[in-house]
Description:
- This protein is an alpha/beta fold.
- The protein has a domain at 237-252 and 287-399: Aspartate Aminotransferase, domain 1, CATH 3.90.1150.
- It is 43% helix and 15% strand.
- The chain has 13 helices and 16 strands.
- The protein has helices at residues 15-24, 32-45, 56-66, 84-90, 136-145, 197-208, 215-231, 234-250, 255-263, 275-305, 333-342, 366-374, 386-399; strands at residues 49-53, 74-78, 80-81, 95-99, 121-127, 149-153, 161-162, 165-166, 173-177, 190-194, 311-312, 319-320, 326-329, 348-349, 353-354, 375-378.
- The strands form four sheets. Strands 1-10-9-6-5-2-4 form a seven-stranded mixed β-sheet, with helices on both faces.
- Helix 5 (136-145) links the parallel strand 5 and strand 6.
- Helix 1 packs antiparallel against helix 10, helix 2 (32-45) packs parallel to helix 10 and helix 3 packs parallel to helix 4 (84-90).
Amino acid sequence: MMVFPRRNVIIIKGFLKSFIRLSLKKQLIDGSYIKEFENEFKNYIGTNYALSVSSGRLALQIILKTLECKEEDEIILPAYTFHAVPKAITNLKLNPVFIDIDEDSQNINYELIEEKITAKTKAIVATHLFGQPCELNSILNIAEKHNLFVIEDCAHAAGAKYNGKRVGSFGKCGYFSFETVKPLNTLGGGMITTNDENIYKKAKEICDSLPSPDYFKMVNKLLISIFEAILTTPLLFTIFVYPFLLLAELFNLNLVDSYKMAKKNFKNQKVRFTNYQAFIGLMQLCQLDQNNFKRALNGKILSEKLDNRIIIRKENPTCESIYYYLIIRSKNIRRLSRKLLLKGIDTGKFVMENCSKMYTQDSECRIAEMIFDESLQIPVSHRMKKEEIEYIARQINRNYDY
């Protein structure tokens, strides 16, 4: 039986050695790699400016501050998203306005946006969920008509393209996440992209005012990342992690979520991005397209091998998704997830949420709630071989409840 983790932590060769080298040179926090990484990233995305930050959620908050949003201003966003996104909005005393999603793409349903626009609406967050670009042209047209800003949420989508152009270059601003489980891992961190010089200067002023991270917390992050990378290698995942996942499944526990909650105790989001993070970002950026291509190829092979009665998330032919995961739907994802785990396939369920339910008991976002209940995230790592993808497809076909 083959065994597959749902996530892979990417680390570069010399990960630890470069940390020691920069420490000895006293260039761990500040140094030339930061500007070099920002320049390379802005050229990669196709914007005039890029600014490194310590997390994706901090990037969103900084963007909202640069747009000079006033208290009680409204920010439109998809209901089906990560809970930290509306939390970043409410932390600034702004009001999130949730839009239901399109059932096929699972991205924001642009046809529902205009009816929610009011005199207080300031911006639209266009999320490229699980690496698939949303319908940007329509969203940008709506924003222009109502004099609104578009903020691209590219946390899952570094390298994805819409009509041949990379996401993060369309809206007023874009933001990216470089957490340990993302396709580009800088031990946490993220990036703001924009073509607006004024926004860039304001954002940089905010970032420059932040404190440097604590050295020992940086060491801790490094060790945790190495630990995660080792445990997601096929052999060690099979020996050490997989048995615990099976045990947790028997008691209906989610070890991954418990581990993520424990990690929060070590995080300090409001700090500066470091020279060391920029160095490992540079090393990974040159591999990003290759890894994205392999992941997308695996996603397409898996899609083609699945029984045509299995509902999968539909891809927009004008877009190039990076396939953060392949998404399938089932009326009983708990049972399917358990069956697949018994066959060695670790899947993700309830990763995103219908966030509108956090703010109102009577949510109008019915599609978001349905997708939350029915979606299962299938791993399609760039490290997987064709025969491994075919194995996953066979197990889904055999265990899926039609």
